[in-house]
Amino acid sequence: MASNFDSIPIIDVSPLLSNPEGINMDDPIVFQVLEMLHAACKNVGFFYVKGHGISDTLVRGVREVSRNFFNLPLEEKMKIKLSSTTGYRGYTKLLDNKTQGKQDMHESIDAYKEFTPGAYGPIGENFEGPNLWPAYPQELKQMMEEYGVALEKLSKMITRGIVLALGGSPDIFEGDRAGDSFWLMRSIGYPGSGGAAHPSAIGCEAHTDYGLLILVNQDDNVTALEVQNRSGEWIPAVPIPGTFVCNIGDMLKIWSNGMYEPTVHRVINNSSEFRVSIPFFYEPNFNAVVEPLEFYKQKTGGGVAKFNKVVYAEYLINKVRNNFVHE
Ligand SMILES: N=C(N)NCCCC[C@H](N)C(=O)O
Ligand SMILES: O=C(O)CCC(=O)C(=O)O
Ligand SMILES: [Fe+2]
């Protein structure tokens, strides 16, 4: 559970990425990184990731190109409108996103992992693609696709680090669990309070995220993401250039039998600037059956499962059906 943290730790993950053969547990520097990952997941549920190896050009580029898209006239943006008939892929205008039943002061483009129609059975039909990309800026599709590949790899390595920290098998989340992650990436635009929004409008209502691990690529010049500690105080995730803000999701709580719990967070853009952020949601496989793992049951609660199992696709569709004002 979140402690009374007053800041969000910064973790340099480069030692986890430097060995192409895998993570070298005998390296004392690696060991230190793993300890930090465990402590951050356990006490805060959030940490900054630096030393991730993803080029600044790509990280800034996807934000700039997304910003150029959000600057287009609404009519143009609505050409790629998200609905229940587009597999929940595409653009959603201001106030049409809902979090915890409240309308959010943000607009977004959602892109999920693409899959062959039929591959996930009847429930999978809800999410059948393809992703919808705009004609302008024409480079958005290619940049986001490159970004998705890079972020999936990074998420996988951080997830391995979290498991290794307690001495688990590094591939515990591979295969049927998250080896074929049904990831989502969202480009999000939050108007400044001088713009379309009224002052202090909630950009994204307080919530936890659904999946395994989330990496947020946020603008450098606006502080808007806030993370709640145990006393209920909101701790700002002040942008640190060159980092991602990483947090854990609901499914990691179940898999880890409560060792790690997601932390409530929200977004309020009180600045006069339009803010862009791009969370990458690293999720279980679409059809994953998520239940407390033996390894974590031994580490928590004396081998007893504290949570019932969940089929990720069912959990997801129940959430997503309530995420939009219009379909
Ligand atoms: N597949 C996933 N993870 N979707 C999460 C999107 C976030 C929706 C919204 N902010 C909410 O939290 O309700
Ligand atoms: O924009 C952000 O910084 C985070 C957004 C978020 O929490 C979400 O979309 O789940
Ligand atoms: Fe979130």
Automatic annotation (TrEMBL):
What Pfam families does the record point to?
2OG-FeII_Oxy (PF03171), DIOX_N (PF14226)
Task: Please give the InterPro entries that the UniProt record associates with this protein.
Answer: DIOX_N, IPNS-like_FE2OG_OXY, IPNS-like_sf, Iron_ascorbate_oxido_reductase, Oxoglu/Fe-dep_dioxygenase_dom
Family statement drawn from the similarity comment of this UniProt entry: Belongs to the iron/ascorbate-dependent oxidoreductase family.
For this protein, the record's Gene3D superfamilies field holds: B-lactam Antibiotic, Isopenicillin N Synthase, Chain
Q: Which residues form the Fe2OG dioxygenase domain?
A: 180-284
Please identify the protein, giving its name as recorded. Answer: Fe2OG dioxygenase domain-containing protein
Does Metal-binding appear among the keywords? Answer: yes
**Family matches, as SUPFAM superfamilies:** Clavaminate synthase-like
The molecular function GO annotations come to:
metal ion binding; oxidoreductase activity
Q: Which UniProt keywords apply?
A: Iron, Metal-binding, Oxidoreductase
